Amino acid sequence: MDIIANLQNIMDDELAAVKYVESEIDAHRDDYKSVVAAIAQLKGNLIMMGVGKSGHIGKKLSATFASTGTPSFFVHATEAMHGDLGMITSDDLVVMISNSGETKECLAPLKPIHRIGAKIVAFTGEEKSSLAEDSDYLVLVKVKREADRFNLAPTNSSTAVLVTGDALALTVSEIKGFSEKDFGMFHPGGSLGKRLLQEGILK
Fold first, then answer.
1. What is the DSSP string of 76-103?
2. Cα distance between residue 68 and residue 136, in whole Å
3. Do 155 and 148 contact (CB within 8 A), yes or no?
4. In whole angstroms, what is the distance from residue 88 CA to residue 94 CA?
5. Each residue of 61-86: pLDDT tens digit?
6. What is the distance between the alpha carbons of residues 66 and 48, in angstroms, rounded to a whole number?
7. 29: burial class by Cβ within 10 Å (0-12, 13-18, 19+)?
8. What is the DSSP letter of 154?
9. What are 113-139's pLDDT values in tens digits?
10. Rounded to 5 degrees, what are φ and ψ at 128?
11. C-alpha to C-alpha distance for 154 and 53, rounded to whole angstroms
């Protein structure tokens, strides 16, 4: 095996997957605009939910939204069915992440969430899936295949969801007029906080 070539091929594959998702945004522009508006106007919290690799991506996206002006936290879909639904209110928006849209652990909380009165955004690669059909909003993040040779490991799909989520978070942040000073309030530590202090943005 040519290790360097293999690394580059996998990276190219993931980049191509993201470019494909980007190319499909225009065809679903109304869905994307509706989701951006729902998040920007949200009175409660943006709650990310999922299991497995999708859950890990949800945790990262929740942190990104929270640090850029949209209060957010993560709830594990399985734990939701064992009491953590109590963290959700009717003012919240739940983003359920499942590439197939048929993950049982992700489908189980949908009806209880509807009963609570919170709206649901489906982050999925399957437009006709059970998740998409039982949600209020859809963000279609479809990839042609995964990056591994077996087409099994969540790679292209999880990367595409991460990039799409980042794009949504930063778009909403811009709509809200989130500033460098605001960012500094939430991120006073580390090299970013130090830079804002040096530039006089954070005092």
1. EHHHHTTTGGGG--TT-EEEEE-SSS--
2. 24
3. yes
4. 8
5. 999 999 999 999 999 999 999 999 99
6. 11
7. exposed
8. S
9. 999 999 999 999 999 999 999 999 999
10. -100, 15
11. 7
Token pair in block for residue 24: 């499909």
Using CA atoms, how far apart are residues 65 and 105, in angstroms rounded to an integer? 24
54-79: string of b/e by CB count within 10 Å (b at 16+)? Answer: bbbbbebbbebbbbbbbebbbbbbbe
| Sign of the alpha-carbon dihedral angle for 99, 133, 93, 177 | positive
Contact between 84 and 75 under an 8 Å Cβ cutoff? The reply is yes
* Model confidence, pTM: 0.93
What are the chain's domains? 3-177 (3.40.50.10490)
Residue 160 or 185, more confident: 160
Round to whole Å and give the CA distance between 126 and 141. Answer: 8
Tokens at 115, concatenated = 């009963």
Sign of CA pseudo-dihedral 74, 140, 101, 54: negative
52-67 vs 156-175: helix crossing angle, rounded to 10 = 20
